[in-house]
Amino acid sequence: WPGNYHTHAPTYCTVEWWPGNLGKTSTHAVVLAQLYLRGKSYGLHPFIAQLRSLENHQPLPGITLGDIGPKLGYHSNDNGFLGFDHVRIPRRNMLMKYSQVSPDGFYTKPVQAKLTYGTMVGVRVEIVSAGSYMLSQAVTIAVRYSAVRRQTEQIKGEKEPQILDYRSQQLKLFPYLAAAYAFTFTSFGVTDRYIEVQNEMNDGNMESLSELHALSAGLKAFTSYVVNKGIEVCRLSCGGHGYSQASGFPELYTIAAPLSTFEGENTVLLLQTARYLMKFTATAKRGGGLPGFVLYLNQRQKGQCPARSESDLLDHGLLSDAFEHRARRLVMEAAQKMQSNIGKGNPQHVAWNNCHMYLLKAASAHCHFYVVQTFVKYINDTEMSDAVRDVLTSLCQFYALHGIWQDAGDFLQDGYMNGKQLDMVLSLVGKLLDKIRINAVALVDAFDFRDEILCSKLGA
Amino acid sequence: WPGNYHTHAPTYCTVEWWPGNLGKTSTHAVVLAQLYLRGKSYGLHPFIAQLRSLENHQPLPGITLGDIGPKLGYHSNDNGFLGFDHVRIPRRNMLMKYSQVSPDGFYTKPVQAKLTYGTMVGVRVEIVSAGSYMLSQAVTIAVRYSAVRRQTEQIKGEKEPQILDYRSQQLKLFPYLAAAYAFTFTSFGVTDRYIEVQNEMNDGNMESLSELHALSAGLKAFTSYVVNKGIEVCRLSCGGHGYSQASGFPELYTIAAPLSTFEGENTVLLLQTARYLMKFTATAKRGGGLPGFVLYLNQRQKGQCPARSESDLLDHGLLSDAFEHRARRLVMEAAQKMQSNIGKGNPQHVAWNNCHMYLLKAASAHCHFYVVQTFVKYINDTEMSDAVRDVLTSLCQFYALHGIWQDAGDFLQDGYMNGKQLDMVLSLVGKLLDKIRINAVALVDAFDFRDEILCSKLGA
Q1: A320 touches chain B (CB under 8 A)
Q2: Does the beta carbon of A431 lie under 8 angstroms from any beta carbon of chain B?
Q3: Right CATH number for B119-290+304-448 from 2.115.10.20, 1.20.140.10, 4.10.240.10, 3.30.930.10?
Q4: For site-directed labelling of B196, which of A254, A325, A417, B269 has its Cα 20 to 30 A away?
Q5: Does B20 touch chain A if contact means CB atoms closer than 8 Å?
C-alpha cells in the first residue's frame, strides 16, 4: 500500500463471530476496532484488513479464521470466526471519509459524529422491507394451499369445503395477510422518511436523525417479531405438509429467523426506542416542540373512545385515534414509573431495569400506532380505483380491529374502551373475515411472486 | 397365515403419507382402512399388512412406498408414503380384539365402540408430557446461558451484569420456566386421570371417557402451542448463538415443531374440546349433574374479583377463581353466540363455523384454568419442604399473574377485574421476577438433564 506507515495497527487479539462469508470466502474485511493514538482511545473506527493471500487464499500471518459450524438455516452460507494477533495494517487502511488520522498521528474528528449512523439506520429500514417480503411469501403459500385443500364434508353428499372457508383458518391467516400489507406500506413510509432525513443531513441538518433512529430501531423489532411468528403460523396452517421442505416453509422460516436477532437484537432495539420516547416525554411535559411523528405525545388524552356502533368502529380515523391513545398512555405510564422508581432513590440504571416491562410496552405501542397510521395514510393519499380502495380499506380495518382484540387489555385498562365496544370489535372481526375471504387469493396473487422464488409445491 | 381366507382385502388404492419408518424400514404396518362386507361399509378398522419381503426387503406386489423427502427436522427418520393396489390379506389380519369378522363374513360389533379411543387419548396425554419435557430442556439451556453471559457495563468499572439480571431477559424466560413446571404437573394430573378412566372402562363404566377425550385433546393443543413458542423465545433469548446448532436449539425446535400438528392438529382438537363444552353447557343450564372437572360450569358467576391489595392477588385460591370465572364466561358466551346464530336460521354447521373464534377462546380458557388449578392442587397436596413449597408457590403465582396480564382483555371485558387490579398484577409480575431470579438456575438444574440429552454448548 502506498503512503506513510505508522504503527497504528491493533496489537491485541480481536475475535469476530458470525459475519457472512468471513470464514472461507472473503479476502478482505472492514473491521470496526478501537482506535488508540498515543495511548488514548478515540472509539470505534472502520479499517480495511486483508485476511487472505490473493495468490493462494491462505490466511495471512497473525490471522485465524474459519466457519463457525452448522446453523439453523443459511446452510449454504459461510459464517465465520476471525482473530487478529499482532497484525499490522497501513494507516491509510482506515476509512477516512468522516474522521482522519494524519501521517504524524493526529486525529481529526468528524464534522458530525452522527453521520455514521446512516448505514445502520438504513439497514434497519431495509429489514422492515425484507420482513414484509418474507411474510408476504408465507401468506401466499398458505392462502393458496387453503384455497386448494378441501376437508370434512359439511353437508352430506356435497363437496368438502375449501379450508379457506373455515373461520379458524381465516383467523390464522388473515391477520398475517393484513400485516404483510401493513408492513409493506410501513416500509414505504419509513423508507421515504429515511431518504428525507438523509437529504436533511447532507445539508447539515441533524434534527430528525434521533427520531428516525428510534423509529427504525423500533419498527425493525416490531415487524420482525410479527414476521417470524406469522411465517410459523402459516407453516402450521398447512398441517403436516408444512413440515415438508416441499412446502417452502422450512427454508423460509430458517432464513427469516435471524431478522429478530441480527442488526440489533429486538429487545435491545425496543429499549433504544423507549429511551428516545422517555427523553421526549420530558420535553412533551414542558410543552416543547417535538419533531415529526412523535408530535402525538404532546396531544391531550381523550377520555373515551367515542364508538357507539359497529360502523363507528370501521372509521379509520377512530381506529387510528385508539392506537394513538394507547401509545400515548403507555409512554406516559412508562415515564411515570421511571420517575417513581428514581424518586425511591434508585440509580438511573436500576430504575431503567425495573421498568423494562413498561418501557417495552411503550415502544411497541408507539410502533404499532405508526404502522396503523401509515396504513390509513397510504389508502388516503394514494391514487387507486374504488374497487382496490374498498379491498384495502377492509384489510386496514381488520388489521386495526384484530390488533385491538389481541391487545384488548391495553385498550380497556384505563376505560378508554369498554366491554361492549370490545364485543363489537369481535363481531366486526368475524364480518371482516368473510369480506377478506372473497379476495384473499387475489390479495396474495397481487404480490406476484414467481414460483422459482416461492420454491413451494403448496403455493405454486 | 393359517386359517380361512376370504377376499376381504381392500380392492382400491390407499395412500398413506407421513408415518415414521414407513418408507424404508418397516416390513409390516397396521393399516386403518374402511371395512366393507357384502358392499356395506362398517367404518375404519385396523389390519396388519405386510409391506416388504422378509427375504430381500423388497416391496411386495401391489405395494408402492418410499420416503417423502426432506423435512424441517427429524432428518434421520424415514417418513414414508405408501400405496396399495389390489393387495390381498387374510381375514385374520384384521385386529379383532373389539370387533370381529367371522369366516363366513359376518360382522360382530364391539361391545363398546369407545374402547378404541383409549390409545388416541393416551397418546395425547403423552404429548403433554413430551412437550413439558422439551420446554424444560429449552429453558434449561436459556437460563444457564443467561447466568453465564455478561453484557453492558452498568456501573463504570464494575463487572457487566449477568443477562439473567435484566428484567427484559427474565420477562422472556420466566413465563416459560413457570409453564414448564405447570405443564409437568398438568401431565401428572391428566395421566392420573387417564389411568383412573382406563380402570373405570375396564369395569365397563364409560361415563368419564368423553370428558377425558375433550380434556386431553384440549391440553395437547394448549400446551404444545406454548411449548413451540417457548422454545423459540428461549432460542432467540440467546442472541446469535441461538442460531448455531451448537446451542442445541435448532434440533430442539425442529423436533418439537410437530407437537402442534401430529396426533390431531391443534385447532381441530380445540374445536373438539369446544364441542364437548357446548354439549355440557346445555346440561349445565338444565342443572344436570356434570362429570369431573367440568363441574365448574355449573357454578354461579361472581360479579367481581375481590382483590383489594397486591397480597390478595398472591392468593392461590383467588387466582384459580379468576381463571375459573374467565373460562365459565367464555364457555357461556360461546354457547350464547351459537344459540344466537342458530336463532337467525343458520344451519348447525354454519353457526359452528361462524362461532369458531368464540369456541376456540372457550376451549383454550377451559384448558388454561385446568393448568392453573392443577398447579395449585399439586402444591397443596404434595409433601415437600417449606423451602421448596415457597419456591414453587412463587412460580405458581407468577404463572397465573403473567397469564392474566397476557390475556388481560378477557379478565377486564366483563368488569370481573378492573384497571387498578391490572396495575397491581403488573407490579406483582415485576416483584416475582426478582424472587424467581434468585432460584432460576436451581429450578432448571432440578430438571436434571444430562449434557448428552441437552446437546448444547450453551446449556451444558
Answers
A1: no
A2: no
A3: 1.20.140.10
A4: B269
A5: no
B404 to chain A, minimum CA–CA distance in Å? 10
Q: Which CATH architecture fits B5-110?
A: Beta Barrel (2.40)
A263 is annotated as an active-site residue: yes
Tens-place pLDDT, residues B231-282: 999 999 999 999 999 999 999 999 999 999 888 889 999 999 999 999 988 8
- Give the start-to-end residue ranges of the domains of chain B: 5-110, 119-290+304-448
CA-to-CA separations, B69 to A451, B17, B349, in angstroms, rounded: 20, 11, 37
Cβ within 8 Å, pair A240-B246? no
Contacts of B219 (CB under 8 A, 6+ apart): B124, B125, B128, B186, B190, B367, B370, B371
ipTM: 0.92
Beta bridge partners of A453: none
DSSP per-residue string spanning B355-369: THHHHHHHHHHHHHH
Is the CB of A151 inside 8 Å of chain B's CB atoms?
Answer: no
CA-based Rg of chain B, rounded to a whole angstrom? 26
Chain A contact present for B71, CB below 8 A: yes
pTM (global) more than 0.90: yes
Q: Tally the residues of chain A.
A: 460
Which of 236-275 (A) contact B at CB < 8 A?
236, 239-240, 242-246, 249-250, 253, 257-258, 260-262, 265-267, 271
> How many Å lie between the alpha carbon of A221 and the closest alpha carbon of chain B?
12
**DSSP string of A327-368, one letter each residue:** HHHHHHHHHHHHHHHHHTT--HHHHHHHTHHHHHHHHHHHHH
| Ramachandran sector of residue B112 (left: φ over 0; alpha: ψ -120 to 50; beta: rest) | beta
- Write the pLDDT tens digit of every residue in A407-442: 999 999 999 999 999 999 999 999 999 999 999 999
Mutation for B interface: A165, A267, A401, most B CBs within 10 A: A267
The set of long-range contacts for B433-438, using a CB threshold of 8 Å and a minimum separation of 24, is B433/B167, B433/B170, B433/B171, B433/B174, B433/B398, B435/B394, B436/B170, B436/B174, B436/B177, B436/B178, B436/B394, B436/B395, B436/B398, B437/B164, B437/B165, B437/B170, B437/B174
